[in-house]
Specification:
79% of the residues lie in helices and 0% in strands. It has helices at 5-14, 17-43, 50-96, 106-122, 132-158, 164-168, 171-188, 195-219, 224-245, 255-267. Helix 3 packs antiparallel against helix 7 and helix 3 (50-96) runs antiparallel to helix 8 (195-219).
Amino acid sequence: MFASESLRIYLMTSGLLFWFLLVCMLVMIEIGWKVGLHFSRKYGIKKIDAADTFLAAIFGLLALLIALTFSGASDRFDKRRDLITQEVSALGTAYQSVDLLAKNNQPQIRELFKKYIDSRINLYKDNDTLSELHLEKKVALHNAVGDEIWKAVVRAVEDTAYPQKLVAAQILPELSDMFTASENQRLSSKFHPPPVVMQSLILLTFIGALIAGYNMGIENKRDWLLTIIFVVLMAGTIYVIMEFEYPRLGKVSLNDFDMELVNLRESM
């Protein structure tokens, strides 16, 4: 987007993104109105039929961008939910696999698992005030707990006598799947369309508002009903797209699926 990361986070967490877009579009319409009115009065410019062709091209391109970004944002949101589900399943399976280890090693490793899940639950808490840099620091701490689990399990397997070691070693693939699921879930939060796509969408939206105001100015006739409908629909659509793209920041969230992690932790 045009905005910096800190401004984007503020607009989304404060719920002001919709109103910010709404006001910007109204300003662009007013600028277009004044320009059109000035040209109409000073140069006698009137609306011509060719203008409809340009309008159709501009708003057609805007409709295409909205369709692409909305569909992509929705698909990525669904994918993030699926990855959380896979992560919960992998965590639960790995925790159950602790039973394969020697009984004297199980208490320490189970405590590490609880610490790992607590770290995962807290990973995105209060993330509405955190930048990407702060989140990466929390991820590093979370991964450090994962390293502790891996080293403790490897030691426990190595200390297990043969042939019981063959049974105990079966926990290692489950741990690997757990870490892979966690990493896939984390990386999914970084999947967004190229910045130029969102920039183009917002730019075209503002251009569309400017042209709408310009046309009304040329005709010297305001249509407040269509103006309000246009700006509300466009601002609302972009707002929903951004909510899907950044579900950890806005009203649309992944909390229902994150609660499965809390339920898993409580069952331990």
